[in-house]
């Protein structure tokens, strides 16, 4: 499942899912110290709407207003063992890179590349080579190294005075991000139950934290909220049923429900979510979990548009900044809730 944005190295002795976090560590920086300087128009961010890890980069790009300087290629929701493919584009080729599959960009740089071909990936357009798929560092660099190109009013997603706390909270958030996969891909009953317990323990701790504050760290949206939202918004649609993470739906957990609603209704978050592609990816690609490939017709997700009431907790989503404008026409998602 490496190409699904779910890189794995091996299953533990007890059938535990283990994520391979070995990514291309090259960075695109303002000073170009890794050979790839920040340059408007030079790079293309390749994502899939289905993937929660890619969703982070899509959100950050939107919030910071980087659309004019960093183009985005969108792979289709399904793939085979070779890699994500651009089957949404005319002729099945990315309109800028001219490739059919993301693996072509990886092999252009590393002819013997054997690791996971994952999204998000940033590709150097002139050479057609993958620069990095290191998603945790990628969003931090969009906030820091690309600062010169942020829109007026862009929020501070990783403020220096809160970085230690954001990093600490993100360790807990990762237990949710990765925990749904550990629960769903467990190969033994014991491994599933252990992952299940750890997942909901982390969700309960985050719920306790969010009961008294609108956002995870400080009084504005930060990198921590960007990490948590993609998992929570996918939870009822896929993780609860497909991954057997079914103690509760997020819609049955009032604090996390309202927090998810709050962010979903915030420009830059909900307008990046494409539920049909999300559901198609998980239910069609993961045939080891869903052998029939049938995509469920539900659930009803209209609750995401209901009032959340979290304004009473205070906080300013964008701090001293402003919301992003509407997404480019070519990047708009359908209104499906």
Automatic annotation (TrEMBL):
Active site residues according to the UniProt entry: 51 (nucleophile), 181 (proton donor/acceptor)
GO cellular component: cytoplasm
Site entry: Lowers pKa of active site Cys: 239, 282
Domain GST C-terminal: residue ranges: 159-292
CDD domains: GST_C_Omega_like (cd03190)
Keyword annotations: Transferase
Name recorded for this polypeptide: Putative glutathione S-transferase
Species whose genome carries this gene: Saccharopolyspora dendranthemae
């Amino acid at each position: 499942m490496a190409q699904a944005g779910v890189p794995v190295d091996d299953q533990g002795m007890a059938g535990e899912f283990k994520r391979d976090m070995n990514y291309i560590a090259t960075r695109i920086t303002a000073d170009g110290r890794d050979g790839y300087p920040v340059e408007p128009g030079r790079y293309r961010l390749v994502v899939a709407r289905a993937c929660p890890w890619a969703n982070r980069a899509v959100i950050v790009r939107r919030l910071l207003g980087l659309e004019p300087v960093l183009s985005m290629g969108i792979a289709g929701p399904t793939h085979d063992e070779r890699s994500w493919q651009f089957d949404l584009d005319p002729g099945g080729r990315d309109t800028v890179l001219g490739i059919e599959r993301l693996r072509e960009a990886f092999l252009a740089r590393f002819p013997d590349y054997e690791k996971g071909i994952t999204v998000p990936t940033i590709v150097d357009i002139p050479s057609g080579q993958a620069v990095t798929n290191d998603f945790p560092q990628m969003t931090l660099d969009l906030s820091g190294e690309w600062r010169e190109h942020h829109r007026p009013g862009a929020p501070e997603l990783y403020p220096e005075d809160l970085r230690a706390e954001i990093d600490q909270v993100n360790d807990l958030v990762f237990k949710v991000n990765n925990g749904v996969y550990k629960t769903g891909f467990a190969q033994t009953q014991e491994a599933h139950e252990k992952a299940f317990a750890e997942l909901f323990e982390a969700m309960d701790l985050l719920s306790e934290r969010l009961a008294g504050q609108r956002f995870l760290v400080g009084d504005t949206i930060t990198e921590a909220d960007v990490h948590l939202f993609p998992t929570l918004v996918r939870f009822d649609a896929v993780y609860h049923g497909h991954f057997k993470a079914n103690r509760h739906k997020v819609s049955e957990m009032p604090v996390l429900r309202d927090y998810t609603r709050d962010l979903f209704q915030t420009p830059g978050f909900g307008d990046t979510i494409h539920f049909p592609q999300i559901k198609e990816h998980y239910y069609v690609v993961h045939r080891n979990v869903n052998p029939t490939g049938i995509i469920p017709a539900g659930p009803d997700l209209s609750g995401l548009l209901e009032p959340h009431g979290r304004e009473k907790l205070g906080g300013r989503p964008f701090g001293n900044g402003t919301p992003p404008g509407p997404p480019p026409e070519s990047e708009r998602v359908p209104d499906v809730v």
